[in-house]
Amino acid sequence: MDFKKEFLKYFLYWPWFALSLIVCLGAAFIYLKIEPATYQTSALIFLDKEQEDKSKIITITTNQKSSEENMENEIRLITSNEFLLNVVKNTNLNISYFEKLYSVQNNVVNKVPFIIIPTISKDSLPQVSYEIQIDDKGFVITDPDTEKIYIVTGYKGNQVVEGLPFKIQLAPKAMKNPAEYYQNEYKITLEPTAIALKNLKASLIVLSSLESKGTLEINHIGSSPVRSRKILNEIIVLLDKNIVNNKQKLFVNTVSYLNKRIKNFTKEKDSIESVKEKFLQTNDILVMDNYIVEKTADRSIKNASFMINQKQISLTRYAINTIRNSSASSTLGSDYNLEAPTVNQMLLNYNTKLMDSQLILQRAQKNNPSYISTMGQLSVLKQEILKTLEGYLNFLVQTDKANVYEQNLADSKAKSIPTKDKILGNINSNLIMKEETYLALLQKREEAVLNGAILESNLQTLNFPETNYSAIFPQPRSFMLGAFLFGLLLPFGLIYARLSLDSKIHNEEDIQKVLADIPMLGYIPKINTDGKLDNTANSRSLIAEATRTLVSNISYLANGNKEDKGNIILFTSSIQGEGKSFCAFHTAISISNLNKKVLLIGVDLRNPQLHEYFSLNKNISGLTDYLSNKSDDWKIFLQKDTTFSKNLDILVAGEIPPNPTQLLTNSNFESLIDEAKNLYDYIVLDTAPVQMVSDTLNISYLADVTVFVAKYDYTDRSSLANINSFIKKEQLKNVGILINGVNMKNASGYGYGRNYGYQYQEVSIKRPWYKLV
């Protein structure tokens, strides 16, 4: 890309850039003067989450992110409608006060010499503005929308004016000297609470610091730093009160809950104790450990007693059998280990008696009455012993049955000990748990009461509200830079769009994009009407020099004509108005000034123009007369040029015929050309546009050089595509391109600029700069 060329292409429109910059920078400057600056006021607060957790009565451990890191609840609270509604009410944001100055308007001020007292609910206030002036009688209030004026008499605010939603009174300080404020103009703006809340919410920014956990940055954007600081202070105060109130509510709710739980746990504990008491009474248990020892020992005693009784039964039965089977002279055993003293004594008596009988038998015979009496007594005694043993045996048997029952009972009680111990253990566990919970609840209640007595906020203000007096909007430097860039880009965009949409030709490159293989013969500058005939042999005008260059290039292109006859140069264009007649006229003059004999023929029979350049009558006889009547000699229709060159002859078109195509295609025109080639060095043909009619295509074969004229900023590039089609079909031969009407002031790509050569000054063309586009 040729950057210099691109720059020059846009530099041609420098007046538009200058005008755009002046307008944009001027508008930006004025806007900066009339628009109040917007500032950012910031405050930094810290919420000690660790202190909050320590002061909680009940803490719950979760796997979620620590509350120290989570400030979303506080941000939601600060930006909530209910919270901000209190800020609006406490700071009276429904009413805005302004002081009208010369350079800055709508500058919010907090100190004004009067006080507005709404006479209706702030929620119902209309969204309206009033202009206020103070005079010696009171206040003059104007509604700028309706231009209605309200007069308030006096300064004390006792008067209620119909149509005004407020009363107004002078401030106590201003009451001392009201005349001090007579020249000042003020403005107030009223708005309902809903609108004020919406505006406050839009101007408030609350951010959580990522670097310092638990830190919140509160920003307010507004035109009044004093008011912004007041709003932020109110937010901090309300947030602090909210924290304390929440803690107070938490304290009240916690104590109430603990009291209910303590009451419930008291009932539950008493119920468990009653169950335990009933259980112990039912099971005859005083102390469980003693009960276990007692029942275990009882079972052992019962088992031992059963075993002893069984042994006595066995011994008794053995003794009965032994005694029953013993002889009358045998002694009875006394070592049966029976626990019956009577039986043992009777056995001892029986043996003593038997020893007495043996002594008697030693002294006397068996028939001795003493012996017989003793033996009779022994028999009776033996029966008594047996009877006594049988009675003892029956007693033992009955005792055994009782022992079995008591043993089973003792075993049953012993086996039920684990179950009773488990039941009692569960009862004791429940009772212990209830007692521990009960004690914990009592402790928590005491802690809650102590914490409630010393409630304090965990909010700390790290940075009190401070205003950054470097305006956020509008920022003068950035705003002016933006206006400067916009001032450049706006015309650039418009020019770029115009150039992109423009399909006209403006330079040689535009033509070469379509007709790449067609040579460029030159260009003709645009001149004013007075200078268009300034093309004499000694002329130094741009038109004279341009046509001389054109003639040189045509001569080079016509070198292919080997015949020693005149060269035929055909001038044509795509459409009407591209200046082919003008170019043919100047070309013929420039060639004739080179001492060449030139014949200029007006072949455009439909729209003839050559007669105007020679100040000839339009209806003068010419080519049409000859073509329509060959018997006439065409030379009689020639006009001699006496103004520019004696070597130039002109054959104008003559009157416009009804059938120009038929006239040009008959043999008369070809005969004219053949004859003229022997008489002239050059024959210049001014023909009709090729895109409109076929006249030129019918005679184009006669030309040695075809000069296709394209007009600067007029000819469409699509027309060149059609000409390219004619060239490819060889309907036009040996074609060269000539650009006509080039504006030397704003044209690019021609290599000349404002001076032509080094000594030929451009003809002065007066054209307003705003018509460059």
CATH architecture of the largest domain: 3-Layer(aba) Sandwich
Which class of secondary structure composition applies to the elements?
Answer: alpha/beta
Strand content: 15-25%
What's the domain count?
A: 4
Shape: elongated
Strand elements, count: 22
Number of helices: 22
At CATH level 3, the topology of the largest domain is Rossmann fold
Fraction of residues in helices?
Answer: 40-55%
Tell me the major beta sheet: 8 strands, mixed
Average per-residue pLDDT, rounded, comes to 82
Q: What is the CA–CA distance across the termini?
A: 24 Å
The poorly predicted ranges are 60-68, 102-107, 750-767, 769-773
CATH class of the largest domain: Alpha Beta
The whole-angstrom Rg is 68 Å
CATH superfamily of the largest domain: P-loop containing nucleotide triphosphate hydrolases
Summarize, please.
With 773 residues, the protein is of the alpha/beta class.
Keyword list:
773 residues; alpha/beta; eight-stranded mixed sheet; 22 strands; ATP-binding; transmembrane helix
Overall description:
The chain is of the alpha/beta class and 773 residues long. The chain has 22 helices and 22 strands. It has four domains: 3-35 and 474-501, no CATH class; 95-190, no CATH class; 265-452, no CATH class; 519-746, Rossmann fold. A hairpin with a 7-residue loop joins strand 16 (639-640) and strand 17 (648-651). It comes from Flavobacterium micromati. This is Capsular exopolysaccharide family. InterPro entries: Bact_polysacc_biosynth/exp, P-loop_NTPase, Wzc-like_C. The chain crosses the membrane at residues 12-32, 479-497.
